What does this fold into?
Amino acid sequence: MTDFEHVLVNSFNAYIEENGIRAISYRLKQHRFTSQFLDVLVDSLNPDLYLGIECKSISVDKGANALYFSQHFTVDKKGIHQIERISDYLNKSGRRGFLAVELRMGAGHGREAYMVPWEDLKKKYLIQNLKLTLEDIRSFPEIKRDGKDYRIDPREWERKQR
It folds into this structure.
């Protein structure tokens, strides 16, 4: 589990506990020869919190200026792109999907994270616009920092969807 995924799971569980919500956030154990569908899952009877989140990080300090669908996502042995696999899983499971993108700014600088609704990502993929620029990423709702954790508020992400 990456640091970003670990912090996101902990932040979700803190939000859930603070608000007395019957839900849980977790990451399935990844096995060597089997792929996982998503990085972070949130289970709840509340449909607004029944979520599937894929996490990606890019190093802005090392010159990354976009999240590329060919570079940052995988294609399986059958030739099926990760965006297609996740979209199918989200459709079958009924989860709301998001792509959480963390922008790493380098040592001594803070990190930024943004929540991209999966449907917006899927639309870009389907029209062959195969990247999200930093400007695109920053146009989505920011996941604000709270010390080393993130402040989780799924209602905020819903209100700001494009």
Notes: Residues 23 and 44 are 4 Å apart (CA to CA). The chain has a mean pLDDT of 88.
